[in-house]
Every structure is written in structure tokens, then in C-alpha cells.
Write a sequence for this structure.
């Protein structure tokens, strides 16, 4: 047996217990949801649920069609045609990913609200006196939320559709034309169906992000599950209710997880051709080239350039007025949290990926996969799932200490940075684990065996063979976790200690007090940090995509 | 039926196909043979309408379909094409792949699909997906699919090169039979001379974008136009010679060649089977046996001539040769080539 060679018993135990530790929030939600009795559930069902369901349905439909339309059309233009400026648009279309939903929402609220510059200008031009004189689309609405999220989430679809189109063997389209189908027919009968699994993956990712979004919905006062969980907990301290809402939300999300996984499997069959013939891009000229370029510029302009430009302008206008010491302390907090989480995440992710690889047991693989689900859990759900068991632990500990020693320990863990980092790890460990795992895949088991046959034990092999080969993916994993922690809002909001804030929570705090211009320095910093993974993603694409 | 006139396709300074002309009769099987990168696939794609020629024309029944004024799109030419990677649509079942190019009612489509599956004897695979069937089956389905819209011409781009050796031989025979039975004309592009020779009635030899020679496989083998052709189709020995007074001086003695040819001749080409090899005493010998390769039906003997040149001789497997045996070599047949590698016409020594 191969596994006996690797003395993997202790590794199995380590992997399994890590996996269970990080799955703790999930189990705590199930236990709590069951503890409330049936009447809580019935109450939810009759009061808030219909509204949540309705809003969620329209959000799915709106963001789904928005990202589909923008993503597939830009993906097709970039991968199959040639027009002046195409190369620049190829990476520019990824830029909106740098904006968290709540930040782009803040910018557009400031820009488009009643007292904002756009409406003011319109009133000046047309001589309107007050809001009774004219109609202007309200930005803080369901429609507004759909627009914001479509603008920042379409790059998922764009990215996957573009790669799918590029990877299709050119001969398939030629074969279709040799079978008497026109180029247009061939696109709809061959290219689009073949790219469908990839497109579904992209839309599923966008849907999961939409379901998880908290900041945009909260700012636009759109009631959804995520805001509902937040209010049920903070407004009413109704733990079973919040847990039940969390589980309902997870049911929705699991549908998209399933859809995503299933489509990825389909994709493998669809990309079976062995010969990759380079596509000849369809050259566009004249008015058609201009239209294609404008079409690609449009989402980049509204999803990145305009809001980024406004943030820069507001930040330069307002930075003297803001409390810079406050900014630096918030930035320091953010960097500290992100840095610690990234280091721990990478370390634990590596341990688990390595342990899961050593083990030939299904149980271990499943445990590891369980951890990767954390990434699909929305922030409020993770926060609640982490808070509940720790609060229980603190209460029990306190009671026991009082009873036995007569001392009060109070809240030992809840309300500390420890619990916050733990929540981040639950949410983002999957990123580190996934990156480490795909990096490990490149190291063959023959290399491991060779090292073992040369007298190195598991630890030495890990240090001397795996780590040097993994350096690139480890750095990438660390960066992804770092940036995601910097951007994270709802879990931080729910778990941060008293008198403590990060860039994200302070920006959000300013926004709720309608001090959006004051928040611009904070927002800008988050967007700039958010650019790093975009640059990284783009570099990776350059290396992997077939060039022509 | 199909005619190409002075077809040229250039990519920047590189001419992939240059000044190429060909014609194809109804029902004819034609092969375009050449090493990889010689432009043969580009030529096929020009005929298919998948590429636009830089110069020249393609005519179908004397009507221009590619040229300066008109480029008929591939879907309106009604040619079938079989690709190297078969290009089956991975998201469609076998039936749907075959029905893809068929127009008409559902029952007509169904009828044609059944007919074609029967033709390639793969009725049982109708509802399978392409990734569920073997390479050889995929190949036959690709043939069935290309025949489905009843084309008059089938273009094949290295259709057998993705299959292993045994399967290749079997399928080649089988598919040739099917295409003959359907009565379509065929242009096969290949780098494999055996494939070209066994598949088609006429072979066009292509090198660096140009037509080198057209003819039956025998003609190209017996009368190669150039030195390159002589060694691309079959094995060839090239020996330097020079004219001395009245005869041609070769490593194996003086040869009797007409003066107007002999004076121009720089290289002599001899096929391995056209040498006569006899053992001889040291003083009469003009070479020494250096290698012996036995391959069942024949034997290839490597001989180093006294002049220093090395030649390959193939002969009967019944004569046993030992290394370092002194031998006497003479040539039964040979061809003369000038300094630029072109054959000097009208002379084949016997």
C-alpha cells in the first residue's frame, strides 16, 4: 500500500481536525436554527420571507441577465474579432472587479442623489425647482442595486466566456461552415453552446456574489437575506431566526454551487479536441470597429473609470479636511488583520492541501472540500456562525469560573481580534487552499517518492521539494487572501471589537452618515488594493491563453 | 470539375502557396503530397474557401468561386471536409453531428442519418456522444458527416495521421471504398507517401509552396523531376559524377551517356534496388560492405565505395553478406541531374 509508506496517520488526523475546526460555524448554524422551535420559522415565513424572496428573485434575474449580456458580448468581441484598441480593452474589462459593490454604490449615490452634481446641473439647465418638477431614476433602489452589481460582476462572465471562445478549436467552426452553415449560424449552433458551461460558471459566480452582497443592499435599503440576517441578529438578537435565514440563504447558494461544479465537469468534455488551431480573428473596420470599441469601453467607463475618477477627485478635494490620523489607524488595522490572516491562511491552506494529497482516503478529501465551501458563505452568515459558538464558550466558561473560583472571566474571545481572524479564515481559507492545491498538482507523486527514496521524511520533503516549487502559488494565495480581507465588510462590521474599525467599516460608517466625500480616501485605498489581484489575473491569463 | 489557376497565398513575405495550378476530374481521387510546412493544407483551405487567395483563381465547373472579384463563402461551395482532428461537435450526439449539415424535414434527416451510419457500419453508436467513442469510430463518423449533405467533392486534411499504424491501414482501405461507392471526387492532403500512393490515382508533389511534379505514383517514383522528389518519394542514392572526354565518370566506373546530357550531369540518382552487388576479389572490388540490415522480405546493405561515398543497396535476402566483404557494384538503372537538381530529360540508362 502506498499510503502506509507515508506514515500518514498523523497527517490524516491533522487535516481532519483542521477541516472540522473551520466547518464549526456551519454546524453551529444548524444547531442554533433547530433550537428556536417551529414558531420562529413560521414567523419568518409570514413576515420577512416573501419580501426577501421577491427581492432576491429580481436581483438574480437582473444581475444574471446584466452580467450575461455584458460578459458574453465583450468576451466574444475580444476573443473573436480584431479592432483598434482591442488589446487594451482585453485587460481594461477586468478593472471593474477591483470595485467592491458597496464602494461603487457609494460613489453613484453621491453622484446621482437629489443633492448630487448631476441632478443639480439638470435643475440648473431646465429651471426645475424641486423634486416635484421632474422624475429622476432613484439610485437607491432594486434597479440601482442590479445596475451596480452587474457593472462590477460582469468581468467573471467576460473572463470565462473569453477563455472558452479562445480555447475552442478553430476547426469546429470551419467544419460547421463546410457543412453549409453561415458564420452567424455557426456561432449560435457551435461556438455559443460550446462556451455555455463556462458562461454558466461565470454567471453562477456572479450570482453567489450577489446573494452574498451586504453593503450595496444595505446602502440602497433593499431587503435581502444578508441584510435580514444582520438585522435579525443586531436588531433583535434573535439567534435562531438569523440562523434559519442563514440556512435558507445557503440553500439558494448551494444551488449555484451545484450548477457551477456541474458546468465545470461539462466543460471538460467540451474541450476534448487535441489540436488547438489558432483562430483567425474576424477583422472589424470603419464604423463597426468604432462600435465594438465603444461597446467595450461602456462597461469599463461606468464600472471603473468614472467612479475611480470621482473618488480621486473627491479624495484630493477632501483629504485636508479628514482626520488623517484616523485614516492611518484604520489602514493599520486593515493591514494587520489582512496580513495575519494571509499568513495563517497560507500556512493552514498548505498543511491541508498537503495532508489531503498524502491521504488516499475519501473522508479526508471530503473534509478538505468542506473547507472550500466557506468561500461561498456570505459574510453575515460566517460572522453569525463564528459568533454563536464562541459566545456560548465564553458564557459557559464564565459560569464555570464563577461557580468554582468565584471570578468573572466575561467575554474571553468574543469581541476580540482573534474571533475576527478566525471568521476571515473560515471565509477565505478556500482561496489559499485552492491555490496551494492547484500548485501541488504540478508536483508529481514520483517527485515525492524520489525524495522519500533519497532518505527524506515527509517534513523534509515538504520543505525541500514542495515549498520551493510552490513559491509562486503561495505568494498568489497570500495576496488573494490579503486583498479579500481588506475589502471584507459585513463580517468585520458584525465582529469588530468596540472602538475598532478598518478601512472598509469606516468607509461604510461614513456612507451611512451621508459623508460620502469624507469616505473617498478610504474607498480609494480599498480600490487600489483591489487592483492587485486584477493585475495578477491578467498576467496569468497572458501566460495560459493561446496567443495568436 | 475543379480547377486552380496560378493560386498564390502569401503571409507577409512568406509565400505558403505560390503559382499553383491543378485540375480535378469528376470522381477522381487526387493526393497532394509534401513534407509538413510545404503549403499543402493552405492549398486545400484555399479550395475550401476557408482562405482567400492573394492571387489566382479557383473554378468550379469553369465558374470562378475564388478570385479577385468573388469569394464564394465555404458554406455555399457544397464541398465536404474531413479534418485531422475530425472536428466532431462535442456537444452534439453522433446522430446530430451527422444530421447537422442535412437540410430538409425531420424524417428526411433521420433517413439520411440511418443511411450513413449503415454505410460506415456504426448504427449502434447513433445516440453516443463524440467523447464516448474511439478514435477510429470518430474518424468514420467524420466521414459520414462530411458525406451527409451529398457533396461532389471531399477535401481531406491529413485525415489518418491521428490514428495508430494498424488502424490507419485498415481505415484507409475502408474509407476509400466508401468514398468510391458514393462516387465523390476527393482531394487528400498528406505527408505520407504510402498513403498518397495507396489512396489516389494521381499524386501532386508539393515542395515549398510549389508544384514539383504531377503524375501517377509510379511515374513519380520512376521518373522524379528533381533530386528532392527522388528522395522524398522512396529511397535514393545521390552520387557526384563528372564528364571526362566521352563518358561519365562515376564511382563505379565509366558510364555511356549521350554527350549533350553527360556534359550537364553533376549528380546521379540510383534507387537501392537498381544496384547490382556481387562479391569480388580485392583488386576488382570497388566497395566494402559496412552494414547489413535484414528485414524479412529484403535486405539493405550499406556499402562504402572506394571513392569514399556511402550507398544503400537493397537486394535479395537469400545472399548472405559479411561486414568488410569486398564487393563490386554496378548500376542497372540511373537518372542524371544537373547542378540545380533538375532531371535531364529523355535519358534513362538501362
Amino acid at each position: 500500500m502506498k499510503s502506509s509508506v507515508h506514515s500518514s496517520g498523523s497527517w490524516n488526523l491533522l487535516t481532519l481536525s483542521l477541516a472540522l475546526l473551520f466547518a464549526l460555524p456551519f454546524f453551529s448554524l444548524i444547531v442554533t436554527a433547530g433550537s428556536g422551535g417551529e414558531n420562529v420559522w413560521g414567523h419568518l415565513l409570514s413576515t420577512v420571507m416573501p419580501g426577501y424572496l421577491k427581492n432576491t428573485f429580481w436581483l438574480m434575474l437582473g444581475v444574471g441577465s446584466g452580467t450575461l449580456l455584458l460578459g458574453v458580448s465583450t468576451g466574444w468581441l475580444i476573443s473573436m474579432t480584431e479592432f483598434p484598441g482591442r488589446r487594451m480593452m482585453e485587460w481594461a474589462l477586468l478593472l471593474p472587479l477591483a470595485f467592491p459593490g458597496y464602494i461603487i454604490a457609494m460613489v453613484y449615490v453621491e453622484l446621482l442623489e437629489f443633492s448630487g452634481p448631476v441632478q443639480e446641473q439638470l435643475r440648473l439647465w431646465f429651471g426645475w425647482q424641486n423634486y416635484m418638477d421632474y422624475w429622476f431614476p432613484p439610485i437607491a433602489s432594486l434597479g440601482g442595486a442590479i445596475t451596480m452589481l452587474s457593472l462590477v460582476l460582469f468581468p467573471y462572465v467576460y473572463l470565462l466566456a473569453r477563455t472558452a471562445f479562445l480555447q475552442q478549436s478553430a476547426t469546429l467552426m470551419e467544419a460547421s461552415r463546410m457543412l453549409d452553415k453561415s458564420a452567424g449560424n455557426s456561432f449560435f449552433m457551435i461556438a455559443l453552446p460550446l462556451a455555455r458551461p463556462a458562461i454558466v460558471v461565470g454567471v453562477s459566480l456572479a450570482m453567489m456574489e450577489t446573494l452574498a452582497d451586504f453593503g450595496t443592499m444595505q446602502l440602497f435599503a433593499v431587503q435581502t437575506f444578508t441584510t435580514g440576517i444582520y438585522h435579525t441578529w443586531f436588531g433583535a438578537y434573535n439567534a435562531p431566526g438569523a440562523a434559519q435565514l442563514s440556512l435558507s440563504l445557503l440553500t439558494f447558494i448551494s444551488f449555484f454551487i451545484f450548477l457551477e461544479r456541474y458546468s465545470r465537469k461539462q466543460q471538460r468534455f467540451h474541450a476534448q479536441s487535441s489540436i488547438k488551431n489558432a483562430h483567425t480573428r474576424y477583422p472589424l473596420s470603419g464604423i463597426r470597429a468604432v462600435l465594438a470599441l465603444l461597446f467595450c469601453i461602456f462597461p469599463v467607463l461606468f464600472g471603473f473609470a468614472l467612479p475611480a475618477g470621482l473618488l480621486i477627485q473627491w479624495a484630493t478635494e477632501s483629504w485636508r479636511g479628514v482626520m488623517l490620523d484616523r485614516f492611518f489607524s484604520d489602514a493599520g488595522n486593515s493591514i494587520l488583520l489582512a496580513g495575519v490572516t494571509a499568513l495563517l491562511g497560507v500556512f493552514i491552506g498548505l498543511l491541508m492541501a498537503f495532508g489531503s494529497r498524502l491521504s488516499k482516503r475519501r473522508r479526508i478529501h471530503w473534509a478538505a472540500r468542506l473547507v472550500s465551501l466557506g468561500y461561498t458563505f456570505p459574510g453575515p452568515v460566517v460572522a453569525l456562525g463564528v459568533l454563536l459558538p464562541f459566545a456560548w464558550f465564553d458564557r459557559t466558561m464564565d459560569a464555570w469560573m464563577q461557580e468554582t473560583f468565584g471570578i468573572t472571566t466575561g467575554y474571553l474571545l468574543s469581541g476580540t481580534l482573534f474571533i475576527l481572524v478566525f471568521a476571515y479564515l473560515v471565509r477565505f481559507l478556500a482561496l489559499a487552499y485552492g491555490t496551494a492545491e492547484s500548485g501541488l498538482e504540478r508536483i508529481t507523486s514520483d517527485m515525492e517518492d524520489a525524495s522519500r527514496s533519497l532518505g527524506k521524511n515527509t517534513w523534509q520533503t515538504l520543505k525541500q521539494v514542495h515549498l520551493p516549487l510552490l513559491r509562486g502559488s503561495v505568494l498568489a494565495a497570500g495576496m488573494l487572501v490579503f486583498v479579500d480581507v481588506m475589502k471584507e465588510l459585513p463580517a468585520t462590521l458584525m465582529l469588530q471589537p468596540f472602538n475598532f474599525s478598518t478601512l472598509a467599516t469606516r468607509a461604510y460608517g461614513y456612507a451611512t452618515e451621508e459623508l460620502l466625500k469624507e469616505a473617498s480616501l478610504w474607498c480609494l485605498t480599498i480600490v487600489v488594493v483591489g487592483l492587485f489581484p486584477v493585475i495578477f489575473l491578467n498576467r496569468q491569463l497572458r501566460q495560459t491563453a493561446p496567443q495568436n | 470539375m475543379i480547377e486552380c489557376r496560378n493560386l498564390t497565398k502569401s503571409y507577409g513575405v512568406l509565400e505558403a502557396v505560390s503559382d499553383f495550378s491543378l485540375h480535378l476530374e469528376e470522381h477522381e481521387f487526387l493526393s497532394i503530397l509534401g513534407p509538413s510546412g510545404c503549403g499543402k493544407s493552405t492549398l486545400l483551405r484555399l479550395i475550401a474557401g476557408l482562405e482567400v487567395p492573394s492571387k489566382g483563381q479557383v473554378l468550379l465547373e469553369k465558374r470562378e468561386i475564388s478570385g479577385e472579384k468573388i469569394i464564394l463563402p465555404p458554406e455555399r461551395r457544397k464541398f465536404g471536409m474531413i479534418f485531422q482532428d475530425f472536428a466532431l461537435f462535442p456537444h452534439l450526439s453522433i446522430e446530430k453531428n451527422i444530421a447537422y449539415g442535412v437540410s430538409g424535414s425531420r424524417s428526411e434527416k433521420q433517413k439520411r442519418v440511418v443511411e450513413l451510419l449503415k454505410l460506415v457500419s456504426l448504427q449502434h453508436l447513433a445516440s453516443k456522444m463524440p467523447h464516448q467513442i474511439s478514435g477510429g469510430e470518430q474518424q468514420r463518423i467524420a466521414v459520414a458527416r462530411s458525406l451527409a449533405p451529398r457533396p461532389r467533392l471531399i477535401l481531406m486534411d491529413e485525415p489518418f495521421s491521428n490514428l495508430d499504424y494498424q488502424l490507419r491501414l485498415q481505415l484507409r482501405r475502408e474509407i476509400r471504398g466508401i468514398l468510391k461507392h458514393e462516387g465523390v471526387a476527393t482531394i487528400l492532403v498528406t505527408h505520407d507517401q504510402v498513403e498518397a500512393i495507396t489512396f489516389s490515382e494521381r499524386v501532386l508533389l508539393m515542395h515549398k509552396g510549389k508544384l514539383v511534379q504531377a503524375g501517377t505514383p509510379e511515374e513519380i517514383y520512376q521518373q522524379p523531376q528533381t533530386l528532392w522528389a527522388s528522395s522524398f518519394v522512396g529511397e535514393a542514392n545521390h552520387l557526384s559524377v563528372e564528364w571526362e572526354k566521352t563518358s561519365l565518370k562515376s564511382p563505379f566506373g565509366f558510364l555511356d551517356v549521350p554527350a549533350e546530357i553527360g556534359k550537364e550531369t553533376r549528380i546521379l540518382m540510383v534507387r537501392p534496388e537498381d544496384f547490382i552487388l556481387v562479391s569480388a576479389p580485392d583488386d576488382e572490388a570497388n566497395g566494402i560492405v559496412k552494414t547489413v540490415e535484414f528485414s524479412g522480405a529484403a535486405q539493405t546493405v550499406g556499402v562504402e565505395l572506394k571513392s569514399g561515398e556511402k550507398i544503400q543497396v537493397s537486394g535479395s535476402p537469400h545472399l548472405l553478406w559479411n561486414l568488410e566483404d569486398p564487393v563490386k557494384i554496378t548500376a542497372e538503372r540511373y537518372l542524371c541531374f544537373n547542378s540545380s537538381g533538375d532531371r535531364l530529360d529523355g535519358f534513362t540508362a538501362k
Q: What stands out?
A: Chain A has 23 helices and two strands. The interface with chain B takes residues 169, 171-172, 174-183, 189-190, 193-194, 196, 269-275 of chain A (CB under 8 Å).
